[in-house]
Amino acid sequence: MIIRKQENWFRMLFIWRGSVLPRLLYRLGLLFALSLLVLYFNGVLFNFKIQLNPAPFTLFGIALAIFLGFRNNVSYDRFWEGRKLWGALLNTTRSLARQAQTLSDLPDGNNAANRFVNLLIAFTYCCKHQLRNTDAGEDLGRLLGTADRERFVHARYIPNLLVLEMGSWLKALRTNQQIDPLLAANIDHNFNALSDIIGGCERIASTPIPYTYKVLLHRTVYIYCFLLPFGFVDSLGWMMPLIVTFIAYTFVALEAVADELEDPFGTESNDLALNALCAMIENTLREMKGEPLRSVPQHKDYNLD
C-alpha cells in the first residue's frame, strides 16, 4: 500500500508510483494511435464517412460515469470493510493479550502467558498468508518453534487451528481451576470475535463482484472510448487525439481503480498494508509482554515517502 504525506498540488500532477497510470499506458497509447488515424482519414473508414455527433457521447458519458461511480463505491466498501476487520483484529488481540498477562495462578508463570501471546501473533500472520495464498511456514517457525510449525504448516485453514489451540490453552486452565469462570467466558467471547474476523475476511476474498457485471461495464467503457474519435474528429480537429485520450484516461482509470480495490488483501499498490499491520500487531503485543520491539524492514506494500 502506498501511503504518502500531503503533496503539493503541482507535484501531484506528476506522481507515478501508486497511480494506475503505468497499467494504462499501453491502452491509452493504442487509443491515441487510433485517434491519429481517424484524424488523418477525417473519420472515413473504407471510403465511408462515419457521421457521429458529440451530443450522444455527452449524454451517454454521464450515464457511464454514474455506473462507474457505483462500481467504485462497491469496491471501496469492500476495501473499507477489510480495513475495519483488521482494525478489530488489532483491538481483539490486545484485549486477549491483556487478559492473559493479568491472569493469576498460571502454570509455569509467564511462560504460559507468553505462549498464548505468541499464538495470537502467529494467528495474525497466518490470516495474512491465508488471504494472500502464501506460505506461513517461516512465521510459524519464528513465533512458535519447529514442532508447531510442522503441526500447522500443511493445514489449509491455519488461523482456525490456532484458535482451537488457544481454546485448548483456556480449557486446561478451567480444568485445573486456575482461572475465574467469568474471565474464562470473556476470553471465549474474544475467541468468537477472532473467528468472526477471519470469517469476514474470507467472505470478502471469496466473493468477488459478479463477473457478468464487470464484463458488461468493461465492454461499455472500451467501446465508448474507441468510438470517441469518430464523434469528435470534426468538432475538435487536431486537438481531438489529446482530448479523447484524456477523456478515456478518466473512464479507464476509474475502472482500473475499482478492479484494484475489489480485493483489498492483495499486494497491489493500493491494497491494504497487511505486512505493516501484522508488524504493528506483533510489536504492540511484544511490548505488552515486556519484550523489545522487533525491527521490521520496509515492505513493498507499505511505502511512506
Textual characterization of the structure:
- This protein is mainly α and 305 residues long.
- It has one domain (2-304).
- 72% of the residues lie in helices and 3% in strands.
- It is built from eleven helices and four strands; from the N terminus they run βααββαααααααααβ.
- The chain has helices spanning 9-12, 21-40, 54-101, 110-132, 137-144, 146-152, 158-175, 181-206, 211-236, 240-262, 274-289, and strands spanning 2-3, 44-45, 48-49, 303-304.
- The protein has a two-stranded parallel sheet with strand order 1-4. A two-stranded antiparallel sheet has the order 2-3.
- Helix 3 packs parallel to helix 11.
- What is the first-to-last residue Cα distance? 12 Å
Radius of gyration: 27 Å
Total discrete domains: 1
Give the total of beta strands. 4
Fraction of residues in helices? over 70%
Set out the fold topology.
Blueprint: E1 2-3, H1 9-12, H2 21-40, E2 44-45, E3 48-49, H3 54-101, H4 110-132, H5 137-144, H6 146-152, H7 158-175, H8 181-206, H9 211-236, H10 240-262, H11 274-289, E4 303-304
Parallel strand pairs: 1-4
Antiparallel strand pairs: 2-3
Helix pairs in contact: 2-9, 2-10, 3-4, 3-8, 3-9, 3-10, 3-11, 4-5, 4-7, 4-11, 5-6, 7-8, 9-10
